Amino acid sequence: MSANADSGSVGPSLCKVDNLHQQVLASFPLCQMIREDLTQNPRFCKLLAMLSQHVECHGLTLKLEKELEMAERDLQTQRLRWLCSESLHRLLREMVFEHSVRKHLSNVPAEDDMFYETMKHNLLVGQCVRQLDLSDYFKQDSPPLLGLDAQQILDLASTQKDLWKTRQRLSRELEKHLLKKCFSLLSYYHPGDEREGVKNMKLLHLSGQLDGKIKRVVCLKGKSYESAALLQQQTCCYISELFGCIQILQSLILDHRLKAQKEIDKNKIEYFEAKCEIVIQKIRAEMMEIQLDTYTEDTISAHRKITEKLEAELKASQGEKHAVDSMLSSFEFFGKEFEVLAEEYSRLRQEIDTKNWALKEFSYPTN
To answer: What is the pTM of this model?
Structure first.
């Protein structure tokens, strides 16, 4: 019984803790927390649970959230008012422009011309007044634009009678112009010649169709933004991976090139060595061929005889040299006195040779 009671008490407590964790994680989706973080920090989990009663999921307090909602509603209201005013102003300018085009193409009644001229004049006055109001708002300390104020511009507006006539007709003309634009828009979405009643029925459903298309365009635009962001993220990842692959490929190419370059250099060296050996053998063969062409058997035998004669003369010269060397050595025995006599003897021999040569020259008969 006690064991069952303990298990029953533990079960609800675990369920309560799990619900608390789920509540905290759901209340703060922007925080990158997991269930293990809350389990390891129970006090922090309780603090977040208490804080979730006063803070929205995106981090704003309840009071600030209400103020933000009121500001957004006020902004939406102001934006809607401005949009209505701007749309009406653009429609009126468009009507004036179309009237100017019709006036140049065909004759226009004087009443219509007066109506559109009055509307054009008052639109211009209203635009000038609005410009003066904006200049006064942004430059409160400076003088007004061109020294004018809004009342001076309003004095240039049309008379009350012309304004009253224009206002009475303006609603009808504006309704006709809007109906014409709606029919042109309808003919764009549903082209074809149909009756007036069918067009009116389709025109009633046109706004819903346009709303659906606008929502679809907004949805597709959001998806396109998400796709563009995802594409950009994937492109960055792809480029980073591509750079990594290029670096790996460069390292592989460099290693392979270094290893292959060693083999290539070795093969080149062996090739050049073989080529040099072939060139040397070819030179030797050419030299042998030249020798064979140059030295015949008779030439070789003559060279042998010349060699033998030169060797014999060389031996005789060497013998004479040996005898002269022995004589010189015996002359050196007499000392310096004999050296002086030898020099005198060589001088006398030189003079004798010179006089003999002169005597021969003078003894030749002259013509």
So the answer is: 0.40
Rg, C-alpha atoms of the chain? 62
Tell which residue, 180, 202, 201, 178, has the closest CA to residue 191.
202
Degrees to nearest 5, angle at CA 328 with 327 and 334: 100
Residue 178 contacts by C-beta under 8 Å, 6 or more apart in sequence? 91
Residue 30 phi, psi dihedral angles, 5° rounding: -75, -20
CA distance 129 to 152: 9
Q: What is the mean pLDDT of residues 272-299?
A: 88
pLDDT of residue 285: 92
Residue 190 φ then ψ, to 5°: -130, 80
Domains of the chain: which residue ranges?
2-59, 84-193, 335-367
CA distance 91 to 288: 113
Structure confidence at residue 273 (pLDDT) = 92
Among left, alpha and beta (phi > 0; psi -120 to 50; other), residue 159 is beta
Helix, strand, coil % (nearest 5) of the chain? 85, 0, 15
Residue 301, token pair as written in the block: 């035998």
List pLDDT tens digits, range 8-61.
Answer: 444 455 556 666 777 777 766 666 667 776 777 777 777 777 777 767 666 667
Both tokens assigned to 137: 């708002």
Q: Cβ distance 186 to 203 under 8 Å?
A: yes
